[in-house]
Amino acid sequence: MKNIDFLCAECGNEIAKEVKEESVIQKCLGVLEENGIYAFVVYSDSKDEKTRKILKKTEKFLKENNFIQENLKEESIYVNLGKLLLIKEIIQKALIYARYHAKASGD
């Protein structure tokens, strides 16, 4: 059985190492919390390279751990409420950890 919290912490650390700016991570987290996964995907994909890195790292993490099979734009999770809420919570947790890692690094 996987420890999802630990996996989220690892993903968050990878995101923080790539992005390094707490404010960028916080904006993505805010969009996710307020408007959901699809808004997070659209926002992250339409902004600068740093937000696209967040999206890419998040999708890679979800695929590697078999939470999704496709990318988040085309994923069938949008018809399964239970899976949708689980994935939203996982992304949220990873971004929260990323924010703390970025803040702790002080870059």
- The CATH homologous superfamily name equals AF1862-like domain
Helix content: over 70%
Strand content: under 5%
Average residue-wise pLDDT: 90
Low confidence ranges: none
Number of strands: 0
Structural class: mainly alpha
Describe this structure in words.
The longest helix is centred in the C-terminal third of the chain and has 25 residues, at 81-105. The protein has 107 residues and is an all-alpha fold. It has helices spanning 4-19, 22-35, 37-46, 49-64, 81-105. The chain has a single domain (4-105), classed as AF1862-like domain (Peroxidase, domain 1, Orthogonal Bundle). The mean pLDDT is 90. Helix content is 76%, strand content 0%.
Short characterization:
This protein is mainly α. The protein has helices at 4-19, 22-35, 37-46, 49-64, 81-105.
